[in-house]
């Protein structure tokens, strides 16, 4: 057998044979250092027979989400590795949540630290095109798919990859689309705490071009949880890290129950009204709609993070200034949808773990890089 160090309990995997029967194989440990195996795993196992495997699931990047970021030269080898097949196939059966949780490695080693998101959901139709059409032009789509997406859903899914114990507080429209979105997110393994509003579920339309860039149109009002909704807000008392992408000011005050509170600058009006201390504020250096200026929040955030895409970004923490580099992509660019909120989710997790600012930003950069290699929201 091959023994893979996953969280604290080893997970045993047997060699894969073409006749689908399993046979014990020689033991081996993945990596020699426990912390290193969790954060930068490499293939240090005995060779096994290889078998060409075709994709059985529409989710690209699923293998990377199990085995974490891999050097480019290893990515092709892992794609056809017999052991990897056995890891991925059970994950495709989403009803097997116990098995799914046992393999939640992400960047953080499957930590069971409790985390949360208070935010929004948009049911998005994705359309892959060579390029976004010019005014009046007709273009042919090569692929379409629909997912429960939006910043809240993206961040919750990324946190769930890092910790199986993830709460998601949100609101849905009380229609067929909204109820289907809730079921989809629960099928991912999220603990969804929600209310339904008597209005249509917010939707979106996203072009994804050949360069991986996304162009988004949203349809309908942003639906979010409110502090006076009948939701189990006290469950946030033992949450290590929480990311806020949407809610009313009272919901943000409830979110402050978490040990570490991170928010997006997209919600600046709500942040101003709530008047709570943020441990980190994430803004975009390229999008004016996600911009914060010193003095706009009282009290000021302890950490202000400014992302700048492939250039990495810079931060200010208690008067200290610094930068970080973008993480190498673990595979080809698929699309950029959700990369920013995945970055923020990774930052939330790392700060919740108690990492230093620089370590947390490097960790978050890897979450953002992985999102670039995944299809759609997660």
Topology overview:
Elements: E1 2-6, E2 9-13, E3 15-16, E4 22-23, H1 34-39, H2 62-67, H3 72-79, H4 82-92, H5 97-102, E5 115-118, E6 122-128, E7 143-149, H6 150-162, E8 166-173, H7 176-187, E9 191-197, E10 203-208, E11 214-219, E12 241-244, H8 249-255, E13 260-264, H9 268-274, E14 280-284, E15 303-307, E16 313-317, E17 320-324, H10 339-353, H11 357-372
Structure description:
This protein is an alpha/beta fold. The protein has 2 domains: 2-102, no CATH class; 115-372, Ribokinase (UDP-N-acetylmuramoyl-L-alanine:D-glutamate ligase). It is 28% helix and 23% strand. The strands form 4 sheets. It has a 9-stranded mixed sheet with strand order 9-8-5-12-13-14-15-16-17, with helices on both faces. Strands 7-6-10-11 form a 4-stranded mixed sheet. Helix 8 crosses helix 9. The longest helix has 16 residues, at 357-372. It starts with a strand and ends in a 6-residue tail after the last helix. The model is unreliable at 1-110 (pLDDT under 50).
């Amino acid at each position: 057998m091959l023994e893979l160090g996953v969280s604290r309990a080893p997970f045993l995997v047997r060699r894969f044979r073409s006749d689908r029967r399993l046979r014990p194989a020689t033991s081996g440990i993945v990596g020699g250092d426990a912390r290193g195996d969790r954060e930068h795993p490499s293939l240090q196992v005995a060779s096994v027979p290889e078998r060409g495997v075709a994709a059985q699931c529409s989710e690209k990047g699923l293998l990377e989400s199990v085995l974490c970021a891999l050097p480019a030269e290893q990515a092709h080898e892992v794609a056809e590795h017999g052991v990897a097949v056995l890891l991925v196939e059970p994950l495709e059966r989403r009803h097997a949540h116990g098995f799914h949780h046992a393999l939640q490695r992400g960047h953080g080693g499957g930590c069971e630290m409790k985390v949360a998101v208070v935010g929004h959901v948009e049911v998005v139709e994705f359309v892959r095109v060579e390029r976004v059409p010019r005014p009046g032009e007709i273009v042919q789509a090569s692929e379409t798919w629909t997912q429960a997406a939006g910043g809240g859903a993206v961040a919750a899914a990324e946190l769930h990859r890092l910790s199986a114990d993830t709460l998601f507080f949100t609101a849905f429209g009380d229609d067929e689309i909204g109820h289907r979105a809730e079921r989809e997110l629960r099928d991912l393994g999220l603990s969804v705490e929600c209310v339904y509003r008597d209005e249509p579920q917010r939707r979106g339309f996203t072009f994804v071009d050949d360069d991986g860039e996304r162009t988004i149109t949203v349809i309908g009002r942003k639906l979010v949880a409110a502090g006076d909704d009948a939701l189990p807000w006290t469950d946030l008392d033992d949450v290590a890290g929480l990311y806020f992408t949407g809610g009313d000011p009272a919901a943000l005050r409830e979110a402050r129950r978490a040990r570490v509170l991170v928010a997006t600058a997209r919600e600046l009006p709500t942040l101003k009204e709530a008047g709570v201390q943020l441990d980190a504020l994430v803004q975009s250096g390229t999008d004016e709609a996600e911009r914060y200026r010193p003095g706009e929040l009282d009290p000021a955030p302890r950490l202000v993070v400014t992302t700048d895409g492939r250039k990495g970004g810079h931060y200010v923490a208690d008067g200290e200034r610094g930068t970080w580099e973008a993480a190498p992509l673990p595979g080809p660019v698929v699309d950029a949808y959700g990369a920013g909120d995945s970055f923020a989710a990774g930052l939330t997790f790392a700060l919740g773990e108690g990492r230093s600012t620089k370590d947390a930003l490097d960790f978050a950069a890897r979450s953002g890089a992985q999102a670039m290699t995944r299809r759609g929201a997660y």
